[in-house]
Amino acid sequence: MPLDRSIVLKAALEQLDEVGLDEFSTRKLAAALGVRVGALYWHYASKQALLDAIAEHIAADATAVPLPDGNWAEQLAAIAQALRDAMLAHTDGARVIACMSAPGPMARAFFERLVTVLREAGLDAVTAASAGDVLTSYVNGFTVEEQARGIRRQSRAERDRLFGFGVSVVIGGLRPLVGG
Amino acid sequence: MPLDRSIVLKAALEQLDEVGLDEFSTRKLAAALGVRVGALYWHYASKQALLDAIAEHIAADATAVPLPDGNWAEQLAAIAQALRDAMLAHTDGARVIACMSAPGPMARAFFERLVTVLREAGLDAVTAASAGDVLTSYVNGFTVEEQARGIRRQSRAERDRLFGFGVSVVIGGLRPLVGG
DNA sequence: ACCTGAACACCGTTCAAGT
DNA sequence: ACCTGAACACCGTTCAAGT
C-alpha cells in the first residue's frame, strides 16, 4: 500500500522519540519506511513541514484533555499541565513547538481555549490574549529547559513541584486582574 | 597571526547574526576566517562547544548591566529586561541559550545574582531558587517565541509592552511570598 | 498518483602529516 | 603549537524518469 501523510507522520514521531531532534533526519525516516528519501517530499514539502505537523499533533494532544469543573484558576492550571504533558510525551517536544515555523490550526485552537477561560474569568480581549501569552511562554520556557537539561538533574517529582510552583505564581499574578 | 578562542568566538557571533542558527556552520565560519575546517577543532572541541561559548557571552552581557537602586521588584524587572536584551542582541540568541548543553560560569553567575535579589527580599534559599527559575523560564520562553515568530507579527513597541506585562504578572505572583 | 534513481550542494568531525 | 589536506560518514532537496 502507498504511503500517506498520516503514516509518514506516525513514523516521524517514532523516530523523534528514539533519536531526538538533533539526530532526526529525513533519510533515516525514509529508511525506516522502506522507501527512498525523495518519496517523503511527495507528502511533505520539507523537513520543517514534517516537524510542523508534529507540532500540530502535540498541540492537538494538549487541547484534547477535558477542562475540569472549577474556577478559572483551576482550569488554567489544568491547561498548563496539559501543554507540558503533551510536550513531554515526545523527545524534544518542547523544542519542536518552540521552533515551529507558524502556529497551525491546532496550536491556535489550544490558545483560543486558554483565552476563552480568561475571558470568562472577566478579562477583556486584549488582557486575556496577553495573559494567555504569559502562561504559554512560561510553560514553553520551562519545558524546553526541562527536556534539554533538567531530565538528568532533577527527579520527575522535583520537576513537577517546580512546575506547579511556577504555574501558581503566574496564576497568582493574574488574580488581581480578574473581577471578584 | 594564529587564531585563538576569542577570535573564533567573535567571528562565530558575526556569522550567527548574519545567517541565524539554522544556517550557522563550522565550514562557513572557517571560510570567513580564511582557514580550513579542521583548524577550528583545535580551538573548540565541537560546534556545540562553540555555541556554548556564544551562550556564555550572552549570559555575561545579561549580567553586566548594573542593578538599579530600588526595591526587589524593580531589580527583578531590570534583570528580566537585561536577559531579554542580551538574547535579542544576537540572531536566535534565545534559542542558543535554550539549546546550550549545560549552564557555564556566566550563566550561573546570572542566576546567582537573580537569586541574591530574591533572598534579600526575604525568600528562603529554596523558594528564591524556584522563583528565579520561574522568571528565567518565562523570559526564555517569551524571547524564543519572539525571535522565532514575533518579529514579523508585532512591532517592537507591542512586544515590549507584552513582555513588560508578563514580567509584572510574574513579579505580582511573587509578591505575596516576600515578607512586607 | 506515487515512487525510484541519481544527482547537487552541502554538512560535522577526525587525523596523519606538515611547519 | 597550530594548521593543512584529505578523507569519512553523513545531510536536505530536486527532478527526470519510471510504473
From TrEMBL, chains A, B:
<keyword id="KW-0238">DNA-binding</keyword>
<dbReference type="InterPro" id="IPR050109">
    <property type="entry name" value="HTH-type_TetR-like_transc_reg"/>
</dbReference>
<dbReference type="InterPro" id="IPR004111">
    <property type="entry name" value="Repressor_TetR_C"/>
</dbReference>
<dbReference type="InterPro" id="IPR003012">
    <property type="entry name" value="Tet_transcr_reg_TetR"/>
</dbReference>
<protein>
    <submittedName>
        <fullName>TetR/AcrR family transcriptional regulator C-terminal domain-containing protein</fullName>
    </submittedName>
</protein>
<dbReference type="Pfam" id="PF00440">
    <property type="entry name" value="TetR_N"/>
</dbReference>
<feature type="domain" description="HTH tetR-type">
    <location>
        <begin position="2"/>
        <end position="62"/>
    </location>
</feature>
<dbReference type="InterPro" id="IPR036271">
    <property type="entry name" value="Tet_transcr_reg_TetR-rel_C_sf"/>
</dbReference>
<keyword id="KW-0805">Transcription regulation</keyword>
<keyword id="KW-0678">Repressor</keyword>
<dbReference type="Pfam" id="PF02909">
    <property type="entry name" value="TetR_C_1"/>
</dbReference>
<feature type="DNA-binding region" description="H-T-H motif">
    <location>
        <begin position="25"/>
        <end position="44"/>
    </location>
</feature>
<keyword id="KW-0804">Transcription</keyword>
<dbReference type="InterPro" id="IPR009057">
    <property type="entry name" value="Homeodomain-like_sf"/>
</dbReference>
<dbReference type="InterPro" id="IPR001647">
    <property type="entry name" value="HTH_TetR"/>
</dbReference>
